[in-house]
Amino acid sequence: MAPMKKTDKKARDIASWAFNVVTSVGIIMVNKALMATYGFSFATTLTGMHFVTTTLMTIVLRALGYIQPSHLPLSELLKFVLFANLSIVGMNVSLMWNSVGFYQIAKLCMIPVSCLLEVIFDKIRYSRDTKLSILVVLVGVAVCTVTDVSINAKGLIAATVAVWSTALQQYYVNLFQRKYSLGSFNLLGHTAPVQAASLLILGPFCDLWLTNKRVDKFDYNFTSVFFIVLSCTIAVGTNLSQFICIGRFTAVTFQVLGHMKTIFVLILGFTLFGREGLNLHVVLGMILAVMGMVWYGNASSKPGGKERRSYSLPIDRSQKHGSDQVNGKA
């Protein structure tokens, strides 16, 4: 029975990760078409729309009885939403104020920052092979994506806020699911409505500042509205799969494997939008990154590869449903 359970867990892990990759790559492609082709450049407001559709999904599932009542303290909820919204705005501002090269370097910094959070708060110890495998992933992705690198003071501040807020948001996704025994649907049910409301209020002003354009003045037509609706629909899966993956793995593993999506996006971009920029060093970078991800998976799963040092997490005993449960195991 034990081997069967282990096999079953692996199958669930692979399915969860595949779900995240497919939805994440899909939404990137749809948003690229929406923004580049149809000129809908209101990224923060669009993210607010994403959380509206996610909220609607959780309301329907709760009404159908698939989501059981749960509790997340208001202080924890507000802390999470603060970092989550800072992450969204910070990434958009970082992209605006920085070169593409420095923006990509900043994104790569999320892995060491996430590692630092786990070492400090969760007392995680990484083996030498695990650390080296992470380094190989970072080098590979850097070779693929980093081009011109120029740094300015305000861009550096924006990138720092974006990196730390994103790392903290992802850390809290994992922490809250463990600490309060919240399933992925339950945690989304708590956070999505507050994020939707706050981003829909702040989003138009933030987008006006970033683009000098008003979202209410956009020329909405059938095709652009179709892509907005499609983006919001896929976003439900993207938001859910992120919570599932971070809950099943950790924020660091999510970041490391997350670069597989970067590789897929690059390949799809070259396939669908032309092969400009595709050269030998990009291909070598892709190969190096994938090898690093495979190495990380093997190294971190071995005894001592990634382990806690005498640490126990306080659990909210009032919660009776497990980490990935929605009336049973997900």
From TrEMBL:
Molecular function GO terms recorded: antiporter activity; UDP-galactose transmembrane transporter activity
Localization, UniProt: Membrane
Protein name: Nucleotide-sugar transporter family protein
Domain of life of the organism encoding this protein: Eukaryota
Pfam family, one: TPT
GO biological process, one term: transmembrane transport
Annotated InterPro entries: Sugar_P_trans_dom, TPT_transporter
